[in-house]
Design brief:
Number of strands: 10
Shape: rod-shaped
CATH superfamily of the largest domain: Intergrase catalytic core
CATH topology of the largest domain: hpI Integrase, Chain A
Strand order of the largest sheet: 1-2-3-4-5
Oligomer: single chain
Radius of gyration: 38 Å
Largest sheet: 5 strands, mixed
Distance between the termini: 116 Å
Order of helices and strands: EHEEEEHHHHEEHHHHHHEEEHHHHHH
Number of domains: 3
Helix content: 40-55%
CATH class of the largest domain: Mainly Alpha
CATH architecture of the largest domain: Orthogonal Bundle
């Protein structure tokens, strides 16, 4: 094969062609060793560098002509020649450089990730194994402004604690940032702040085990001492009705101008149910023929069935049915009672009692039940507490009739102390 060597000029290279009978032809520069111009039958032309390395011929593409100039091609060919003389394979170096650049690009992209990126990935990864309530807690505590309709009026709810962290880069979630966040939230809503921190901590711990997010979080951020000390310690409340307070409490609750609120408060006391379990009760969950109520349980996904006692039944039958929910509210966007605290506080104040919470009514059920020696297993089954022992978990199955016997006895005692007659 004839080798054509000449001094590369723009004019000469523009005239170089590939004969129709060949796939390509290479022309060589006489000034720079190893620099060639490869011409194709398609009229495409590109610079290349050829040399020997380890006893083998290597060819490396430099760039297309004329977008790559002769001077640029010569400079690159000289650099490649030096590398080959030093025993360095330019192809491997190029791969290393590309890999390094890609790694740096990924790292730069990772460092720009905000907490919301991790938070959303965390929710998607764990939703299937969480209970619905757990997932909803994560959504609720990270929600921003929401429009809420109260009757004909609309208002905006306040952003929840975790919402304040969502747009912060993960690399900036250091101990100082988290402490400032907790201090601000503690001044407004310490209980929600404490729960929110536990959810954020679990999320960030999870992120450190994921390839995409590992190493982004600053050292000793969520585990720093100043952060742990900023988490408000939530003391267990002890509000509960006493036996002698029942007459004035019932009188004050029955005097409320909202029959749905009256029924909600008294049924919560008599059943010991959680606030949302009663609030979301639907008419289809009540069997007036067989006197039972099916309650959506926080612990048991299938819910639990409890007796419909006579006084509770009388309260329910006195209510008008406006929709599917028993405890209707025309002011709530959900159409059922969501926030009964204001009415309960009013009733407690009118009864001359100290502050009483909705959960305090549930606590009162357990406390007052001891006056009639209500078995602890019966109490737990009615209120929806987990069984506390092997015998309770695996060997004790109480039918609804047995629950009804004890539940009616408890209700009768409550009514007698409150001086209420059916």
């Amino acid at each position: 094969m004839t080798t054509t060597i000449f001094k590369f000029t723009t004019t000469r290279l523009a005239q170089c062609t590939c004969p129709s009978k060949k796939d390509y032809v290479i022309y060589w520069d006489e000034l720079v060793k190893g620099l060639g111009l490869k011409t194709y039958i398609s009229t495409k032309k590109s610079f290349l560098f050829q040399s020997r390395l380890g006893g083998k011929v290597i060819k490396i593409s430099i760039g297309s002509f004329p977008s790559c100039t002769i001077d640029q091609a010569r400079q690159k060919a000289k650099e490649l020649d030096v590398m080959c003389l030093n025993g360095i394979d330019p192809r491997l170096e190029k791969k290393k450089l590309i890999a390094k650049n890609e790694h740096e690009a990924r790292e730069n992209k990772r460092k720009k990730l905000i907490f919301n990126d991790i938070w959303e990935a965390y929710l998607i990864a764990n939703k299937s194994r969480w209970r619905e309530r757990t997932y909803n807690d994560h959504i609720r505590l990270a929600s921003g402004n929401k429009e809420i309709k109260i009757g004909k009026r609309s208002t905006l709810s306040k952003p929840q604690p975790i919402y304040a962290l969502l747009n912060i880069p993960v690399s900036e979630l250091n101990a100082i940032t988290l402490k400032q966040w907790l201090d601000e939230e503690n001044s407004i809503r310490p209980t929600s702040a404490s729960l929110s921190f536990r959810l954020v901590r679990a999320c960030l711990n999870w992120s450190e085990e994921q390839i995409l997010f590992a190493g982004l979080l600053p050292d000793k951020s969520i585990h720093a001492k100043i952060v742990k000390q900023s988490v408000a310690s939530i003391k267990a409340k002890k509000d509960s009705l006493q036996k002698e307070q029942l007459p004035s409490f019932f009188k004050a609750v029955l005097a409320l101008d909202n029959p749905y609120m009256t029924a909600y408060i008294l049924i919560t006391l008599i059943t010991g149910a959680r606030r949302n379990e009663i609030a979301k009760l639907k008419w289809k969950d009540i069997d007036f023929k067989w006197n039972t109520m099916h309650i959506s349980d926080k612990i048991d996904d299938d819910g639990r069935t409890i007796p419909l006692t006579p006084y509770v039944k009388s309260l329910l039958t006195a209510l008008h049915r406006h929709n599917d929910y028993v405890f209707y509210s025309e002011r709530s966007s959900t159409t059922y009672i969501v926030e009964p605290t204001k009415s309960l506080k009013l009733a407690a104040r009118n009864a001359g009692l100290d502050d009483l919470s909705i959960h305090g009514l549930r606590r009162s059920f357990k406390t007052l039940s001891e006056w009639i020696s209500l078995p602890s297993g019966i109490t737990a089954q009615i209120t929806g507490h987990k069984p506390s022992g092997t015998e309770e978990k695996h060997y004790t199955v109480r039918p609804i009739d047995l629950l009804r016997k004890w539940h009616i006895e408890y209700e009768n005692w409550i009514l007698s102390q409150a001086k209420i007659t059916l």
